[in-house]
Structure formats: C-alpha cells, structure tokens
Amino acid sequence: MAVMSSLRDKTHIILYTLLAAFLALIVFEWGMNFSGFTGKANQAGKINGKSVPLAQYDEVYKEYAENYRRSNPGAEVTSETELGLQEQAWNTIVDQTLLEEQFVKFGIGLQDQEVVEALDSPTPPLVIRQNFSDPATGVLDRKKLESARRDPHNKELWLQVEKIVRRELKINKLIRALQTLDHVTDREISDIVSRQYSRFSASFIPVTYSFAGADSNFPVKEEETKKYFDEHKELFKQVPSRKADFVFFPLTPSSKDSLSVRKELETIRTEFAGPVNDADYVKVQSDRPTGINATYSRADFSSSAGEALFTASNLKPGTIVGPIADRGEYRLIKIKQITTLAQPIARASHILLRFNPASREDVQKVRELTMLISKQLQAGVPFELLAKKYSADLPSAVNGGDVGWFSKDRMVPEFSAAVFNARPGSIVGPVQTQFGLHIIKVTGFDQSALLCSEIVRKIKPSTETVDSGRRLAMAFQMNAKEKGFEKSATSAKLPVGKTVEFGRHMPVAPIGYSEKVTAFAFKASEGELSEVLETEKGFFVMRLTGKNDTGYRLLDKELKARINAELVREKKGAALEKKLAAMVKGPGLTLEKLAAQNPGFHIVTADEIRWSDGFIPGYGVDRPLVEAMSGLDVAKLSNPVKTSDGYALVVVSKKTLPAGLDIKAEKAGVAPQLLRAKQEQLFAEYFASLRKNAKIEDLRP
User: Fold this and answer.
1) Quick one: pLDDT at residue 26?
2) Which CATH number fits the domain that encloses residue 304?
3) Pairwise CA distance, residues 494 & 248, whole Å
4) Which of 108, 454, 621, 688 has the largest count of CB atoms under 10 Å?
5) Rounded distance, CA 696 to CA 91, Å?
6) How far is CA 289 from CA 26, 245, 296, 335, in A?
C-alpha cells in the first residue's frame, strides 16, 4: 500500500523524458482524451485545424499548478512561475495532439494483451520500473507489483496507470516505425572508439581572424545584408511582438511599512514563546509555513542577519530571537537546540574575471589582469577595493566581493574545493570555473547550527504606500496625455525605460511577466499611451513604440549590425584560409620556418590532447581544432584547419590509445549506444519537423 500511496501522489502528473537528452518532447498522461477536441467558442487555440477548448487547456494548467504547489510547499506562485506553467500546459496539449495524429497516420493501436505482456516482461514500462524497483539495486520487486495489482483498493488508480502504460507502448511503436532505416557501420563504430580514447601530440600555429586585415577591408553592401537575411530567414522566426517605452513607479515598502511588520511580530513574541503547538502556530502566523523544527546555519541567512542571530546574547534553548530583518522580511526565531553541523560552511569574497577560454586574446588579457591584481594585493591594496574595481560579479562586487556564507554544495565544485581546502584569511587562485577566473579570499569557517521554529513576515507595501504610488502614476499619465510622454518624463525627471521585443505569452524584459502589460501592448496602436498599469512590482505608464506581426524579426539597425558582423567574419575567414593555404604550398615547409617568416606567428606544442572534450593542455578548449586534428595524418603539415576564432596550421606528431584498451569490447559497448543515438536523433528531428510544419494557432487570452 505504501508504494501505491506514493504512486497515487504522483499520478496527477506522470512525466516521461523520452529518449534521454536528445528529445525535447515530454509526454504527460492526464487520463483524458486529447484526440477529441471539439467546439468553437472559448477556444484556447487550434492545432492543425482541431479546436482546443479553453476549458480543456485550463484543466491541464490546473494539474500543473497543483503539482507545482505540492512539490514546492509554501512557495509563492509568481507571475513568472504562472507564465511557465501556462506555457508547459499549452506545449503539452500541442505535443499530445501531434502525437495522436501520428498514431492515426501510422495505424498504431494497442491490444489489451500487449499491455498485460508489457507488465509481465523483464523490462516493464517506465512507470512500473520507477515505482516498483528496489532503489538500491534497481531490481524490479515482482511481489510488490503483483500485490498492488490485486489490491481492490487500487482499482481506480490502476486504471490510470494502465493509461500511462498504453501511451508509452504506443510511443515506442511510433519510434520503431521511424527507425526501420537506421543502422550503424563498423567504420562508424571504429571511428567513435578511436576518437573517444585517442590522445594526440601536436604542434600548431593558431592564426586569428585579425591576421586577414582590418574589418574596414571587408565592407558589406546593403544588398549582401538583405540577401543573408532572406537566405537565413528561418533563423529569425519569432512570434508576433511589440516594443514599448515606459515610466515605472515602484512599489517599495516604506520605513513605516517595515516598522509595522516588525511591531506585528513583536506583539506575538510572548505568545510564540509560550506552550503553543509550533506546527499549528507557524502555519497560521507565518508567511513561510515550512519553518518548523528546521536546522539553520549562517548560510540560511544574509550575512548581517546571520551575525545578529548567532551572536545574540540570549542564544540558548527556549528563547526567542528577533524579529531580525533579512532580505525583505522579518524572522522571529524560537530556539529549540544549539547543535553542530556535520560539515562546516564557509564565507568568502571573490574577484571574478570573465573570459573566453577558446580565445587566445582573451586568455592573454585575463592573465595580464590576474598578474596586475596579484601585484596590487602583494603591495597591500585591500581585496575589497580590488573587487569593487575589477570583479565582473556586480552583485558581490558592490560588497567588496563578499558572497556570504555557503555550504560546500552551493558553489561549483572548483570554487568549493579551493575554499574548503584553504585556511581562513588566505587568498587563493586564480581558480577557473564555468564562469571565469576567481581570485578568492577565504573569510572563515563555521559549524554552528540551530534547531528552531520560526515565523516569517514579508515586508510588503501598505495600502497607504500603494495609494501614494498610484496617485503619482496617475498624475504622470494625465500630464503625458496632455503634453506628451517624453516631455512629461523629462520635466518630472523620471527615467524612461525601453522594453526589448516581447510576445503575447512571454516575460517583458526588463519588466517581467504581466498580463496587463501584454494585454495593453497587443491591443494598442503604435504610439498609443496606456492607462496606469498596476502590477505586483509597481505601476507602469507605457507608450507602444513598435509592432511586428510578420512572423520574423525585423531587419532593424541592431539585426543589420549582427548580420554585417557575421558577413565580415565570413569574408575574413575566407581571406585568411586562402592566405594560409598559399603559405603552405612551398616545398619543405615546416611550422618553424613559417613562424620565422612571420613574426606574428607562434607555435603551440601540446601532449595529451583529448578529442573527448576538445581540451589542449596549456592552450584551452578548442573543439573545432581538436576535431580537425583527429582526421590529420601524422607528421604531415596540414592545410589551414578551422579553429574557434580563426584557422591553424597543424602537425600531429603522435596518436596513441591507452595501454590495455580492449578495442573489441569497447566497440561492442558503443554499437548499441550509437544506434540508439541515431534513432533518437531521427525521432527528435522528425518531431521537430512536425511542430515546425504544424498550423498552431495560440488564441489564449
């Protein structure tokens, strides 16, 4: 029964991620008939002419919303979250409808006996394996499965499970119908194994696009830009969009609002300290009802709030600490027990230097900057000042690079390893992560923790604050109607913001998602002024500045600049390749001779170059270059080969495989994976084509 109870909780939404990382298609089983859409009124949209009733869409959306709330108890459903759920619901309906069409097209049906055989097979459907397998071993527990099937209490739930199974079996049939022509050759398998395990030794001269000459030597004509746009129009597809200017009046809680929330918590402090049932009391009084018998460290608070709590003079079991201000809310903490963390947390500051590891110019610049910062630190310049000056992590830079307290798993592994292996007060690095280079100052470690319950109250704008903001927005709107938008903003010294292009069901950068904003934008005429638009964040007065219903991005100034930059890059690439190809035509040429003839050239020599990740020791990651190396003959000067930021002339001196590698065994393991990958790619491309060519009309309000 425990398994079925768990399964019952999950069957509101059962998720299958088909075909590993290759497919964007996610199939949900809702226990409803997706192929039977009818009706014309109150439509959410149409898919290849089939009507999608708004009620049907709402039902799917409600399932998503309920699942989100179950999975995130106490979490606020923001406008952005709501938008994401709405898009998931709509995409689910689209995908399900297209799947049903394919089932009909390929004549895919299912007999009851097939379902029974699938449940009894050694590898039953995914929903069965997920819920009736031993988590430690992955072995299916047949006794538990049969017990659940025979239990009369599970009859209704088991009907839902069978629907899920039927959907999975039909999808598998569809995949098999599309896979009949797929096969892999021995040569393909050998090539994959060889490349995966090969290590190269090579020397090469990397030549960037700049060697071809200045950008001004490669002018782009207007007709070339237009031709590129027309030939690559599919790259610029987009939904109907709008652009607008706006003046924003934020809803920022006043000091009076903050004081009011603090006083509210102070009035219940004594009662909370008494013999109340914490669980019931917190659920009623707190804006975050999950704070019951929770274990907190300094990492669960802002730096200032953590300091106030953990250094409180009355920090002992049975006492109340607070209200403590912390990130836009007040927290009232009831101490149950003072304890110790099994693993310490750390506090650190950093200077982040971003760069492109595939760009030699970027690498050189970041090395020089790292050396400069190191010299300044050695000269006694405070770390905090250097962080404010140089760090690309702006939120922490304003605080002198301080990232606060954190546990080991909250940071990327390289950053955590550097911090947790260092001593307090030490400066370590540079450490490279996916974000760039970090120079890190380790502030300290702590293992203090508290078992406690808490009441949280968010600091929200009062009615008085909201009314004041609304009046300011209304006064501006009336003035803008009379005197003009820009003139009114200038005279009132109010900044005018500009949105990027946005669609009907998209967040509006930099505003965020707002139904009121998009409703105005898609009803208004160009140049029209909005009424005051009230949102969770504040009040907007907008002026529509652009409409685009063509289905493609407009060839505006920004897009022209992007296309021209790409065309210049293509022209420089062609010129560079031609120039280098001419250089290597002479007899007896070597990399050394070429470097001697061209002062700007330098030779890079590296061993243990890996095809698997494109890494070249001492140089960085350059996948195109390493891919080219894998196909070159040993000890032969290459023609120009493509790199991440130009071309290179290469001599591969050695290709090796690890000692003891069993090629036959590796090929046997790779063959089914390669076949599966090709099949998955075929299905992904097929379904992407279905979506692309489908007539999808999104009529949601």
Assistant:
1) 31
2) 3.10.50.40
3) 8
4) 454
5) 10
6) 32, 40, 15, 17
* Spatial contact of 202 and 633, defined as CB atoms under 8 Å apart: no
The whole-angstrom separation of Cα 266 and Cα 547 is 52
- At residue 74, the pLDDT reads 60
Neighbours of 520 (CB within 10 A): 20
What's the total number of domains in the chain?
4
Distances (CA, A) of 396 to 407, 487, 498, 587, 641: 17, 37, 26, 57, 41
Same domain, 282 and 374: yes
Of 413, 414, 410, 391, the C-alpha closest to 401 is 391
Q: Is residue 438 part of a domain?
A: yes
Is 123 part of any domain? yes
Token representation of residue 456: 């949280």
* CA separation, residue 7 to residues 14, 28, 164, 169, 207 (Å): 9, 15, 12, 19, 59
Same structural domain, 450 and 478: no
In terms of domains, do 523 and 564 share one?
Answer: no
Non-local (6+) Cβ contacts of 82 within 8 A are 65, 513
DSSP annotation of 536: S
User: pTM of the full predicted structure?
Assistant: 0.60
Domain membership of residue 307 (yes or no) is yes
pLDDT of residue 3: 39
Integer CA distances (angstroms), 490 to 484, 529, 550, in order: 10, 16, 34
Q: Are residues 437 and 562 in the same domain?
A: no
Q: Nearest Cα to 195, choosing from 670, 643, 662, 610? A: 610
Q: Which amino acid is at 594?
A: L
Residues 213 and 259 placed together within one structural domain of the fold: no
> Which segments of the chain have a pLDDT < 70?
1-41, 73-77, 79-80, 135-136, 179-183, 358-360
pLDDT for the residue numbered 183: 67
- Alpha carbon distance 520, 593 (integer Å): 67
Query: Contact 508/502 with Cβ under 8 angstroms?
Result: yes
Is there a single domain that holds both residue 307 and residue 340? yes
Whether 267 and 161 share a structural domain: no
* pLDDT score recorded for residue 659: 75
pLDDT, residue 22, reads: 27
pLDDT of residue 29: 35
563 and 616 part of one domain: yes
| Phi and psi, residue 561, nearest 5° | -65, -40
> Which residue type does 693 have?
N
- Does the residue 399 lie in any domain? yes
Q: How many CB atoms lie within 10 A of CB 57?
A: 22
Residue span of the structural domain in which 615 resides: 199-232+558-656
